[in-house]
């Protein structure tokens, strides 16, 4: 390795809060000021996309669609229209397990503006009637969006973060950056090129939290111009009568997912890994094979079971078993 080259290499780390999470970029290169400028531009792109997609900003394109599309077609920018078309395609390919119309159910379960609460079955049934991509009419010629019923609502939370990371990575490439790691809340990570001294960026996935006396494992996923997304049930939940209800919902059943506790997907597109990791969490181990066949070269992992007996099913992601951890015993 050339010692002069190594001396010139610099690392720049930048972070910014957007989309209700922390976005971070680690950049490698020879010119620190240029790296910093490229990183700031990439993070500005993330903020611009948040301003387009956020359902909590009344001025965003998606908020405007949610407010008006049941009464009239709403025109959106070409980039947002293409993202909605991509979401529709992923909805079809995943058998409806990824669905950006899930917002009425998220609201019904109290996760949109709070930490969750058990809804009345009648309210769940009403919300389910407002969910489904068949209720969204996309007019490609006029770049408009229309809903076929009142109460339909879009939430791009399961694809927007990945889409923003894709756009940020594209911004870095256009600025001449060839080595960087980007992540949004650590749940979606993109490895641009490779780091100095290694053939890929390496990102760890730990086994789910649970009974530490049970079998434990870890996975190290190599990324080179690829994204990894991890979806899990423990990010936000509430308890009712001793049972936990997570924030990730099955749009088909209108209930929190129960078929898996963790799912991971690796692909070149962060938007696709973001969406398909959610779909894989919904279908669990029984639907793993279908999701794993959707793209050439896709790598997947899904974990089911209970806290004292997790079962990991991996396709292309190597797992390394760890020794059991004995819990300290109290005095008898």
Could you characterize the architecture of this molecule?
The chain is α+β, with helices and mostly antiparallel strands and 332 residues long. The protein folds into three domains: 8-55 and 156-199, T-fold (Roll), CATH 3.10.520; 60-147, ApbE-like superfamily (T-fold), CATH 1.10.3980.10; 200-326, ApbE-like domains (T-fold, Roll). The protein is built from nine helices and 18 strands. The strands form five sheets. An eight-stranded antiparallel beta sheet has the order 1-2-6-7-10-15-16-17. α2 (32-53) runs antiparallel to α7 and α7 packs antiparallel against α8 (270-283). The longest helix is centred in the N-terminal third of the chain and has 22 residues, at 32-53. It is globular, with a radius of gyration of 21 Å. The termini are far apart.
CATH class of the largest domain: Alpha Beta
Order of helices and strands: HEEHHEHHHEEHEEEEEEEEEEHHEEE
As for the CATH topology of the largest domain, it is: T-fold
Q: How much beta, percentage-wise?
A: 25-35%
Number of domains: 3
For the secondary structure, the number of strands is 18
Q: From the helix content, strand content and strand pairing, which structural class follows?
A: alpha+beta
What share of the residues lie within helices?
Answer: 25-40%
Rg for CA atoms: 21 Å
Instruction: Please describe the biggest sheet, giving its number of strands, its sense, and whether it closes into a barrel.
Output: 8 strands, antiparallel
Let me know the CATH homologous superfamily of the largest domain: ApbE-like domains
Residue stretches low in confidence (pLDDT < 50, at least 5 long) are 1-7, 324-332
- Tally of helical runs: 9
Strand line-up in the sheet with most strands: 1-2-6-7-10-15-16-17
pLDDT averaged residue by residue: 90
Q: Kindly report the oligomeric state of this protein.
A: single chain
What would you say the CATH architecture of the largest domain is? Roll
Q: How far apart are the first and last residues' alpha carbons, in Å?
A: 60 Å
Which outline best applies? Answer: globular
């Amino acid at each position: 390795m050339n010692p002069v080259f190594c001396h010139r290499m610099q690392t720049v780390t930048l972070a910014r809060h957007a989309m209700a999470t922390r976005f971070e970029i680690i950049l490698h290169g020879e010119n620190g000021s240029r790296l910093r400028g490229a990183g700031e531009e990439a993070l500005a792109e993330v903020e611009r996309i948040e301003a387009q997609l956020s359902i909590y900003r009344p001025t965003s394109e998606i908020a405007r669609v949610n407010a008006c599309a049941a009464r009239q077609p709403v025109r959106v920018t070409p980039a947002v229209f293409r993202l909605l078309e991509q979401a529709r395609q992923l909805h079809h390919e995943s058998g409806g397990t990824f669905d950006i119309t899930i917002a009425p159910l998220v609201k019904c379960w109290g996760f949109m503006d709070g930490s969750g609460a058990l809804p009345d079955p009648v309210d769940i049934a009403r919300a389910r009637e407002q969910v489904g991509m068949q209720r969204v009419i996309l007019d490609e010629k006029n770049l408009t969006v229309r809903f076929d019923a009142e109460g339909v609502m879009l939430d791009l939370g399961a694809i927007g973060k990945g889409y923003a990371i894709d756009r940020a990575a594209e911004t870095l490439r256009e600025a001449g950056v060839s080595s960087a790691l980007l992540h949004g809340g650590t749940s979606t990570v993109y490895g641009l090129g490779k780091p100095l001294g290694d053939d890929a960026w390496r990102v760890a996935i730990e086994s789910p939290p649970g009974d530490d006396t049970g079998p434990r494992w870890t996975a190290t996923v190599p990324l080179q111009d690829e994204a990894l997304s991890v979806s899990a049930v423990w990010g936000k939940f509430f308890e009712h009568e001793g049972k936990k209800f997570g924030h990730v919902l099955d749009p088909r059943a209108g209930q929190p997912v129960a078929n898996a506790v963790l799912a991971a997907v690796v692909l070149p597109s962060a938007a696709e890994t973001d969406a398909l990791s959610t779909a894989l969490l919904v279908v669990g181990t029984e639907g793993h094979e279908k999701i794993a066949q959707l793209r050439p070269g896709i790598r997947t992992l899904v974990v089911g079971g209970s806290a004292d007996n997790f079962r990991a099913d991996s396709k292309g992601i190597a797992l390394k078993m760890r020794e059991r951890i004995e819990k300290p015993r109290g005095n008898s």
